[in-house]
Design brief:
Layout (H helix, E strand, L loop, with lengths): L3 E5 L6 H12 L2 E4 L1 H12 L4 H6 L13 H10 L3 H15 L5 E5 L2 H5 L5 E6 L2 H14 L6 H17 L12 E4 L5 H13 L3
Parallel strand pairs: 1-3, 1-4, 2-3, 4-5
Helix pairs in contact: 1-9, 2-4, 4-8, 7-8
The protein binds 2'-deoxycytidine-5'-monophosphate (DC).
Length: about 200
C-alpha cells in the first residue's frame, strides 16, 4: 500500500510533533526532510562543499545534534541551492513511495517532492508563537539564547525559505491548513488525523 502524507510549514509550527504522531497513529514511516538539509548545513559549517555533501549524504550524517540555531541557519542557506535540492530529491521520492505509507515533513513536500500526495497539510503559527516555542526548546536543552535572537532567526529563516526561487515554502493548492497558534498540540494532532482519515 502506497499512501503519502505531505506536511509542510515554517520552522517550529508543530510539523515535527504532528508528523510523528500521525505516523505512529497510522503505522506509517516518517521522514523529517529538514534533517537532510541540516546535515548538509552541518557539513558546510565544517568546511565542506554543499553540493558534494548533499550527493554523498549517508544515514550516519543524520545522527548527532543537528538541532542548533547555527545548523538551522546553515540548512536554510544551503536549501536555496538547486543542485543541493536536486541531490536530495530521489531519496525523498523513494521514501514517499515505500510500501506501508509514509509521512514526509518539510517545506516543499506537497508542492515539489510529492505533488501527488494523498493528503497535504500545511501547519503554521504566528512567528512570535513559533519563536517562543523554539526559545523554550533551546533553553531546555541548555542552549543559551535570547527571545529576541530566536525571533530574529525565525523571521530570517521564514524569509529565506519563502522567497527563494527554487521550491519556496508555500501551501500546496489543495493543502489543509492547520494554524497551531492557539491550539493545544493534541487538538492539532486530532485535526491532522481526521484530515488523513477523510482521504483513506
Ligand atoms: O524543518 P527544519 O527547521 O529542520 O529545516 C531546516 C531548513 O531546511 C529550513 O530552514 C529550510 C530547509 N528545508 C527545505 O528547504 N526543504 C525541506 N523540505 C525541508 C527543510
Amino acid at each position: 500500500m502506497i499512501f503519502t502524507v505531505a506536511i509542510d510549514g515554517p520552522a517550529a509550527a508543530g510539523k515535527g510533533t504532528i508528523s510523528k504522531a500521525v505516523a505512529d497513529h497510522f503505522g506509517f514511516a516518517h521522514l523529517d526532510t529538514g534533517l537532510l538539509y541540516r546535515a548538509v548545513g552541518a557539513k558546510v559549517l565544517a568546511g565542506g562543499d554543499p553540493v558534494q555533501a548533499a550527493k554523498a549524504l549517508t544515514p550516519k550524517d543524520l545522527e548527532g545534534d543537528l538541532r542548533t540555531p547555527e545548523v538551522a541557519q546553515a540548512a536554510s542557506r544551503v536549501a536555496v541551492l538547486s543542485d543541493v535540492r536536486a541531490a536530495l530529491f530521489e531519496f525523498q521520492r523513494s521514501f514517499a513511495a515505500r510500501d506501508g505509507g509514509a509521512v514526509l515533513d518539510g517545506r516543499d513536500i506537497g508542492t515539489v517532492i510529492c505533488p501527488d500526495a494523498d493528503v497535504k497539510l500545511f501547519v503554521t503559527a504566528s512567528a512570535e508563537i513559533r519563536a517562543e516555542r523554539r526559545y523554550l526548546e533551546l533553553s531546555e536543552k541548555g542552549i543559551e539564547v535570547t527571545r529576541e535572537d530566536v525571533l530574529e532567526d525565525v523571521i530570517a529563516r521564514d524569509k529565506r525559505d519563502s522567497e527563494r526561487s527554487e521550491a519556496p515554502l508555500k501551501p500546496a493548492e489543495n493543502a489543509v491548513v492547520i494554524d497551531t497558534s492557539d491550539l493545544p498540540i493534541e487538538v492539532a494532532v486530532a485535526k491532522a488525523v481526521s484530515a488523513i482519515k477523510a482521504c483513506r
